[in-house]
């Protein structure tokens, strides 16, 4: 008989795991309290690259980008190939050293990344030529996509493979965690995966399983269109802690990270005016394309929650024998979801997980400070 598995959470991780388990013959049910993609995944910037310094992260990210490209080839999503540039500004030696070191380690892992000096940046990326760069790096296996399009495509594929996709269904766990209580029913499963984003800790606490994870708030905005926006590389300014990528003729700008724990049921999902002002100042200072008479205008801005762990690595694997968790992405959960969802699906069905991400490396009650994930420093 096929293994009956429940997935709680219809974000990028949950839909991928549900689809991959259904394809492998499991009897999978995905529960989502709202619509699929209504959590962090629908708020993500949709940036993806394989430029990671740790070998395990690099392999995961490479597989994820490969899956994005496969879906693009099938016409299910649009993955825009676009270089990812990260840089430290002149005078910021700490981050400049970290950029140099990260590139060395990425290259040792076989990543297609290259160090660039100020002249090379000006030559290759004139749209950010006005930045006084100390050192920059470029990753070529990179791009961006609409994150909701991925979640919808994977949810559709999960359903096509036979998974039940129950949206508008907020669940709680009961007994040893393999019983799921919906508003109308109670169902027992052979295994349960909790991929409920910022709510994951709260759900597991309901069955007495502690995990060391804290939700923290990050922000983003989209500008209106302007000439030359498409020539801006996806970029991360390590000195300013801000990033951008082209979006619908304008730019999407992000960060505004608040390094403290937020309540997933009570946080402000709108961006702060101070974040908006600082982002526009940063754009003025960073993007050197012709913008005509007009300044950058804000089309939309928002905030969402990312999830932090004590060592900045994910919690991916079993917390009890048939109760699994998938969270703790430090702002890099969307770009890795196609691979991490695949790996947790395999682990639940008896295959290998990722040892470095095994949640049982922690007791669950560790105290720790939230440190943001968008950084070049280890
Ligand atoms: C502004 C912003 C920009 C970002 N940019 C990027 C980026 O460019 N690249 C990148 O890799 N990452 C990015 N991230 C991080 C990324 O969004 C997350 O790491 C990733 O989407 C998390 O996916 P998930 O499936 O684990 O969680 P989520 O997408 O949060 O999904 C969890 C789901 O569980 C559901 N749920 C919760 N409780 C219950 C319950 N009791 N019953 C049923 N369902 C429940 C929620 O409704 C939600 O849909 C960004 C995040 C933000 C906020």
Automatic annotation (TrEMBL):
For this protein, the Enzyme Commission number is 1.-.-.-
Q: Which Pfam families match?
A: DAO
Q: Which UniProt keywords are given for this protein, alphabetically ordered?
A: Oxidoreductase
- Span of domain FAD dependent oxidoreductase: 4-346
Is Transport included in the keywords of this UniProt record? no
The region annotated as signal peptide is none
State the source organism's domain of life.
Archaea
Question: From the Swiss-Prot or TrEMBL record, what is one GO molecular function term?
Answer: oxidoreductase activity
PANTHER family, per this entry? FAD-DEPENDENT OXIDOREDUCTASE DOMAIN-CONTAINING PROTEIN 1 (PTHR13847:SF287), SARCOSINE DEHYDROGENASE-RELATED (PTHR13847)
What's the protein name?
NAD(P)/FAD-dependent oxidoreductase
Species this protein is from: Halosimplex aquaticum
